[in-house]
Amino acid sequence: MSTPHTDILKPKQYGPRVLQLREVVSQPVVAAFCAGGVAGAVSRTVVSPLERLKILFQIQSAGREEYKMSVGKGLMKMWKDEGWRGFMRGNGTNCIRIVPYSAVQFGSYNLYKKLFEPSPGAELTSISRLVCGGTAGITSVIFTYPLDIVRTRLSIQSASFVTLKHPTGKKLPGMWATMVTMYKTEGGFFALYRGILPTVAGVAPYVGLNFMTYELVRKYFTPEGDKNPNALRKLAAGAISGAFAQSCTYPFDVLRRRFQINTMSGMGYQYKSIFDAIRVIITQEGIKGLYKGLIPNLLKVAPSMASSWLSYEMTRDFLLSLRSETDIIEDVL
Length: 333
Hints:
This protein starts with a helix and ends with a helix. The protein has a single domain, classed as Mitochondrial carrier domain (Mitochondrial carrier fold), CATH 1.50.40.10. It has helices spanning 4-8, 16-25, 28-46, 48-58, 71-82, 84-88, 91-116, 126-156, 175-185, 196-221, 231-260, 274-285, 294-320, 325-332. By secondary structure, it is mainly α. Helix 10 (196-221) packs antiparallel against helix 11. Keywords: Calcium, Membrane, Metal-binding, Mitochondrion, Mitochondrion inner membrane, Repeat, Transmembrane, Transmembrane helix, Transport. Solcar repeats lie at residues 27-115, 124-220, 229-318. GO terms for molecular function: metal ion binding.
């Protein structure tokens, strides 16, 4: 005799293709990949105005005054100059970039974790988490870097920098047009990977520290006897891990942005190497030059990483629950 609960779960409700898809997306690495993409899009859209303001702060060299102001005034200036579109400028490209970037990062992290497990299901050490996270960060950068450099260009090309000349009344180029122009005029394929060395140097420790810290804090926030902390504690763990990792690796982010626009005319600098950039920045702008934009960055990190980790875990858990109907019925019975 069937029960209402088991009737709902009968396999005949779904066709073979649907069941096959459910089996695929419920695999741990695939679920992490898909959930990572969702997490990236959600987190970047939430903090898009602060993300763009951070970039505008970062790319200013010594003597530039356009965005030498507080975070509040910077946001007001962005709104006054460009309106709502100014807040979201470059976010479409950023989401196009961050979805595969975040998907590859979370998916590869889960894959590397399996490789580092001393035995199936065994807990990793903090060092192993750090290494897995760092390797996942490098993997995601290599796959998506051209979209990142184009996003930086889009973020600044409409800003009111006096020395950047924009044709009056002419529509600014979009993502694809910017990428094609860079390819044709700035050195071909390698132009799309300009600044990747400081990016990798910063991303590897950042992602490693982020994953390691999150899992440690998450475990600390999990009540004894439970497997998961509640949503609020997950948000707190994400905010803490993101702020800690960003603070430790922030100078690499500044170097990345500077090198991404190193060939643009009117920006006031042409660095020859990473060490030359560090020397020039410290000489002209002091140590604080390596931390330009840190305040809006920290303001965005908390909601960004909190929303990222929460949306990741919620999406991943949902996908993992899509097991085969037979397994679910067996569990129920």
